[in-house]
Amino acid sequence: MKLPNIKENFADWYNEVIYASELADQSPVRGCIVIRPYGTALWENMKSVLDEKFKQHGVQNALFPLLIPESFLKREAEHIEGFAPELAVVTHAGGKKLEENLVIRPTSETMIHFMFAKWIRSWRDLPLKINQWANVMRWEMRPRAFLRTSEFFWQEGHTAHLTQEEANKMVLDILKEYVDFAENYLAISVITGLKSDAEKFPGADYTYTFESFMPDGKGLQMGTSHLLSQNFAKSFDMKFQDQEGKQSFPYLTSWGVSTRLIGATVMAHGDDKGLVLPPKIAPIQVVIIPILKKDANNQATLDAAYKIKDSLIVKGIRVLVDDNDQQSPGFKFNNWEMKGVPLRIEVGPRDLENGQAIVADRLGMNKEAVVLTNIINYSEALLLKVQKEMFERSKIQQNKMLHKIAKLSEFGPLLDTDGIYIKTGWCKNPACEKELKNFKASTRCLLQTHELVDCFYCGEKSKGDVLVARSY
Ligand SMILES: [Zn+2]
Asked: How far apart are CA 187 and CA 397, in angstroms?
């Protein structure tokens, strides 16, 4: 099947490639998708890398209820205000109207904090570091597969600490792990910074984000790490006895990434032929295609294909032999290119006579004849090279799209052009930030730099540079 032209129609390309590559399918429930086995395998690979990273920081996994008493969300005023329009509420169960409505979790802060209050009695119970891999629900008016769906899968980390310094460190440690994951596994270049007050998590003291910019110039929030205000601990009466025997409240963090990372990976790397998956997280890293002849004995070709497969598995490489004898090699090439498998090895009778096989890489679409005795080392090295090259490309592409422009009147109209995002100066007045809405844009994150002198709108002194873009 042919995809819409990626340069001319990025949005349609994205919508079609998700389904054509069999990452996901539409479901009968509006705003909810089915993540198919190929998409699930991709998510599982992401999960396993992140899960190990979290555990290195002493985080333990747990599972909390899907349903949250409505009253829990009302305890933290800013929190409920932030989520109210997106909540799905259960009013009936067991054939009866419930005494208290139950909310399908939009996030589990309140439930987990309720339990933390029970579990944290003394300073010896700290730090407490919990993570949950789960699905959550936030009703979406304009759903898009993986980017915005009413139900999505994610991890939410929640930690409690004795001191604010320790909590700050946790927020930054996790942010660092996220960035390492985005750049060295997903091969996506990201920019980190604080969110503005208007864009931060409802009820947080501050929110760190890591953002990337897609080929159409739109910003994509890849994930966030927050220091929560003490109000969260107070509203659940999370008191404990400190070292001096006094009553004290812990400092809380929360942090999360979701299946949105699948959407980011698709957009950041895909091309007209389909997905291009980074080797480190690709469900299948190498597909071997034996070139089978009709009405002939193909046993020698198949044996050679399986032998390469076994040797690749020994090296820890995820590999599949496509030995379907009803499909032509050309059909298979297109199919695995659509699915973005990083390497393809073709083995035919003629190749075998020459003691070689053909190795093709999805990223560069290069083909190379490689002697069979060297094929394992060659593939291993090429996977590493492709991984690195994908990240370099991502970095170069995002740098190219970044424009430094001082005035909203100049860059506002440009935001309608594909492939542009803006670095500008800001006085930090929320009124100026609101003006961006006229161009359907927002601040993505505050930068550490201070290159622009004046605010993009009011002309007062800038307090620091900020990234502005339309966003997913
Ligand atoms: Zn201003």
From this structure: 12
Do 343 and 382 meet the contact criterion of CB atoms below 8 Å apart?
yes
Domains of the chain as residue ranges with CATH: 10-64+109-269 (3.30.930.10), 286-383 (3.40.50.800), 401-469 (3.30.110.30)
CA separation for the pair 44, 243 (Å, rounded):
42
User: pLDDT (tens digit, 9 = 90+) per residue, 434-447?
Assistant: 999 999 999 999 99
Report percent pLDDT > 90 for the chain. 92
Query: Parallel, antiparallel, or unpaired: how do β-strands 151-161 and 128-137 relate?
Result: antiparallel
Please report the DSSP string for 363-394 in residue order: TT--EEEEEGGGHHHHHHHHHHHHHHHHHHHH
142-178 pLDDT tens trace: 899 999 999 999 999 999 999 999 999 999 999 999 9
Residues with CB under 5 A from ligand 1 (ion): 427, 429, 432, 455, 457-458
- Ligand 1 geometric centre to CA of 444 (Å): 16
Please name the residue that has the structure tokens 């090279």. Answer: 385
Distance 400 CA to ligand 1 centre (A): 27
Residues 6+ apart with CB under 8 A from 454: 406, 425, 460, 461, 462
CA of 454 to the centre of ligand 1 (A): 8
Residue 207's nearest CA partner among 252, 254, 138 is 254
pLDDT of 77 strictly over 80: no
pLDDT band at 284 (very low <50, low <70, confident <90, very high): very high
The CA 85 to ligand 1 mean position distance, Å, reads: 30
Centre of ligand 1 from the C-alpha of residue 464, in Å: 11
Q: What is the distance in A from the centroid of ligand 1 to the CA of 459?
A: 6
Ligand 1 center–CA 430 separation, angstroms: 8
Q: In this predicted structure, what is the pLDDT of residue 363?
A: 97
- pLDDT over threshold 90, residue 416: no
String of DSSP letters for 46-71: HHHHHHHHHHHTT-EE----SEEEHH
What is the per-residue burial (b if ≥16 Cβ within 10 Å, else e) of 315-339? eebbbebbeeeeeeeeebbebbbbb
pLDDT of residue 213: 96
Read off the tokens for 217. 């110039």
Tell me the pLDDT tens digit for each residue of 311-325: 999 999 999 999 999
Q: How far apart are the first and last CA of the chain?
A: 27
d(CA 217, ligand 1 centre) in Å:
24
Q: How many whole angstroms from 428 Cα to the centroid of ligand 1? A: 6
Burial category of 438 from C-beta neighbours within 10 Å (exposed 0-12, middle 13-18, buried 19 and up): exposed
CA of 432 to the centre of ligand 1 (A): 5
